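User: I'm new to structure prediction. If I give you an amino acid sequence, what do you actually give back? Let's try with this one:
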Amino acid sequence: MKPNTASFCAAIVATFVLIAPSLSAQKPAPPPDPPVAPVPSQILNARKAFIANAAGNSDQRIAKYVGGPDGIYNQFYADVKNTSRFDMVSSPAEADLVLEVTIALFPVSPSYPSFRLAIVDPKSNVLLWTISEPVDPAILAKTARKHIAESLGRLADDLKSLSTGK
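Assistant: Good question. You get back a string of structure tokens that encode the predicted 3D arrangement of the chain. For your 166 residues, that looks like this:
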């Protein structure tokens, strides 16, 4: 190395040694956690639920795999009942929450359906919350039935998690 180059390199190393500790001390603070919006108290305090058969005009791509137009309603009703979170009632007037499950197109992949759960306050008829679960694609009928049942089961589990605050 030439003398000028060696002294230049030494100066750079010395400068780095002097400023390196201050660089590490000036790390920016991590961004604060985003605020968490509260779950409506009607959902957290609910004990009785009414499930509306809102999927009655269901997509035939799904209905044929779940026992017809009432199959989605029947499967979701059983899944929610199995969570043991709510007492199921037979009219909205008796309920703390009305649950409406419908079929929608999954926004990420519009050719695949998803299930959408609308949670409504029966006293005010106000929509409190929505939850969606996609139906995984399938080629075979047996696989389609399995994926539909899994999606509805996830929706019931999502509802239980939301309503228990977990």
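You can read the tokens as a compact description of the fold. Here is one thing that stands out. The CA atoms of residues 1 and 7 lie 10 Å apart.
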